[in-house]
Specification:
The chain is mainly alpha-helical. The protein contains 3 helices and no strands. Keywords: Coiled coil, Membrane, Transmembrane, Transmembrane helix.
Amino acid sequence: MDKIALEAIRLLFTDGGAGWIVAVLLGLACLHLHRENLRALEARIEETGATATALERASQTNAAVAAALESRTRVLEDLTRLSSEIARGVDRSDERSREKFDEILRRMGEVRLIGRS
């Protein structure tokens, strides 16, 4: 680029002013390159906006999945707790065991419903 600039300056003052033509052509070339650079920057900005939108949507989806997983985890924790209580109740053979088994079956039905949605 430096060589081109030096050559343009030399030609500007030689050959009876023919260098002015070179200077004008160089100016037009610089103007064209500047416009192309602006177009490329605008395209990159638009692409960045599209990427940001996609990341925001993915973040919202991840939050919804996390909430669903947390809900299922709580149900599974309840089932585990109930299973432990039932195991102790079976050892004692009390009537509450049947109630606990019914509650487990009901909650398992809820888990299946949650899993389908």
